[in-house]
Amino acid sequence: MNDNSVLLITPWDREGGLATYSQYLTEEISDNTNLEVFNWDYESLFERGSSIGAVRDGIVGDIRESDVIHIQYTFGRFLLSGLIISAIAKLFNTETVLTQHERFENIPMAKFVYYYHQFLYVFVDRIIVHTTARKEMIPKLHRKNVLVIPHGVIHRDMNKSVEINEPIEILVPGMIRPIKGHVEIIRAMSHLSNFDLRIIGAIDNKQYYKRIVEEIEQVPTECSIAVETGFIPERELQAEIRGADIVVLAYQRYTSMSGILAHCISWNTPTLVTDCKSFRSVINTEHAFIPSHDPIGIAKGIRSIGESKQRRKIISKEFKRISQECSWSNVAEQTENCYQQVQV
Question: Which residues are in the Glycosyl transferase family domain (predicted)?
Answer without folding.
Answer: 157-318
